[in-house]
Amino acid sequence: MASPPMSRNTDASTAENDPKASFWATIEPPHNTAASESAEAYDRLREGLEREILVKLGIPASAGLDDMVRELLAVQDAPETYCVYPEVGEALQRLRDAGYRLAIVSNFNWTLPELADAIGLGQHMDAVVTSARVGYRKPHRRIYEAEIGRAHV
Asked: Are 84 and 122 in contact (CB under 8 A)?
């Protein structure tokens, strides 16, 4: 079965068509350039987002939300949290050898470039772009424009 075509409308929110996008739109907007000014500013945003998610899940403040948020952020940033299959490095290298330019473009936190290096993916990429640093989340066109600029495409 063929995959559905990708949406070309990268400026508009898909929240009205996608329940997951609708949930995330209530938590994090498609752009937040103020939080993208520094790692510290973005971490404050992350703390607030994780706290809001826990509250929406019905976890009471008395359950130790601050400790839970700290643990969630630590797990997200830890390279040992992620598993890169052994054949991935070789596959990525073969794509590069074939002339492809490769990039990671993700709605992830500030540490993505360092994380990609730590788990062995960064060395295969022409660019690693995270919405945290760009200030725009996929599918907004500006995150893709940032990738194109960094990869010199």
From this structure: no
- Structure confidence at residue 151 (pLDDT): 62
Measured over the CA atoms of residue 126, residue 103, residue 122 and residue 113, the dihedral's sign is: positive
How many degrees, rounded to 5, is the angle at CA 100 between CA 137 and CA 31?
5
What digits encode the pLDDT tens for the residues 59-84? 988 889 999 999 999 999 999 999 99
Q: 107 φ, ψ to 5°?
A: -85, 75
Q: Is 89 buried (19+), middle (13-18) or exposed (0-12) by CB count in 10 A?
A: middle
Residue 103 phi/psi, 5-degree rounding, is -150, 150
How far apart are the C-alpha atoms of 13 and 80, rounded to whole Å? Answer: 33
Q: Give pTM, 2 decimals.
A: 0.75
